Amino acid sequence: MNASPLILHGKGFDPYYNLAVEEVLASVCTGRKGLYLWQNDCTVVVGRNQDILSEVDTSYAEAHGIRLSRRLSGGGAVYHDRGNLNFTFAGSDNETDIIVSAMRYLGLDVQTTGRNDIEIMCGRNSAKFSGNAYFKSGSKAFHHGTILINTDLTVMERVLTPDKAKLASHGVASVRSRVINLSEVDPALTVSDVKSAIIKAFEDKYGTAEPSDISSLNAFDIESARQRLISTEWIYGSK
Amino acid sequence: MRERDDRQYAKEHEWAIFEEDGTCRVGISFYAQKELGNLVFANLPEVGDTVTAGTPFADVESIKTVSDVYSPVTGVVKEINEALLDSPELINEDPYGAWFAVIEKVTDKCNLLSAGEYDAYIDSLS
């Protein structure tokens, strides 16, 4: 089967809806490549097997209207706001090379690390601007990640508590990373520039996508995934 | 590496041993743990949970990915290997010994492959 690749753009900034869309997209992208570009309002997303209470300052989150969510993929806790762009490659195990190519189109020299991060040089040091995670279930798979463009790093620093998480007895603890916004390297860069570059790199690799949008996915499936993802049972888990 | 021929395999990369008492012991294949890389977490069902053949019943997290683990049979979880909760690395060290769960009251099973058939299936994936 050689169906043309699918590109979807986020509709709204609801983290549970967005996580549901990527899950449903992955289930229709077996034997096909899909790309989903999306953004959340202020949200913490923890990894599948993390202890959310040790990863997040939940009282700070509540006081500042930061939503808490849990994703299907592994790895550490991340903070999203509208200065951050998320991408999901559905039907793929790992598409890090597409993000690296996209950054090169933007004139940014980046490199991958052993820890599923992508880094950029700033002065004499490198810092992480993109965290990546992966999920596989039978023939379904996706690779997704974050790109910091102009996120409020002060809030990120305040709401995530990786040092406390290391002491937790169960679950996967986050690793604190030196992070950077791409706007610090290129002040003119916008979320829209980064989106266009990722689409170009994706289409270079897989061919031109046919025009599509989220309404092509089954709305009932999205809603039932969203209900599961927003449930207290899923978010707080029992880890 | 060829898989051990004292058990059967599912295409989702689990192994199954049917015991004489009618229960089924389940784990993941050597190939599966090697593809996943170093495991850092194993999420197991609870004793008494109902599992369904061909649907996820556990998941494992490695330094690379989270991967669902599928049940090869339909039944009820009789025992889980609690050692994996504290030491998921046991799955990398000895995937054939590091069983995930024992399923009882088995009423259905997936199409399972012999070790030879599973080896051939793995070869077809690369």
Describe this structure in words.
By secondary structure, chain A is an alpha+beta fold. In chain A, 34% of the residues lie in helices and 24% in strands. Chain A has helices spanning 15-28, 52-55, 58-63, 96-105, 153-159, 162-165, 182-185, 191-206, 219-229, 232-236, and strands spanning 6-9, 34-38, 43-46, 67-70, 78-80, 84-90, 110-112, 117-122, 125-137, 140-148. In chain A, the strands form two sheets. A seven-stranded mixed sheet of chain A has the order 1-2-6-10-9-8-7, sandwiched between helices. In chain A, helix 4 packs across helix 8 (191-206). The radius of gyration of chain A is 17 Å and the shape is globular. Chain B has a single domain (8-118), classed as OB fold (Dihydrolipoamide Acetyltransferase, E2P), CATH 2.40.50.100. Chain B is built from four helices and nine strands. In chain B, strand 1 (8-9) and strand 2 (14-18) form a beta hairpin. Chain B is globular, with a radius of gyration of 13 Å. The model of chain B has no long low-confidence stretch (mean pLDDT 96). Strand 9 (125-137) of chain A pairs parallel with strand 7 (66-70) of chain B, so a sheet runs across the interface.
Tell me the Rg of chain A in angstroms: 17 Å
CATH topology of chain A: BirA Bifunctional Protein, domain 2
Strand segment tally of chain B? 9
List the total number of helices of chain A: 10
CATH class of chain A: Alpha Beta
CATH superfamily of chain A: Bira Bifunctional Protein, Domain 2
Low-confidence stretches of chain A: none
Helix content of chain B: 10-25%
Query: Quick one: CATH superfamily of chain B?
Result: RNA polymerase II/Efflux pump adaptor protein, barrel-sandwich hybrid domain
Total number of helices of chain B:
4
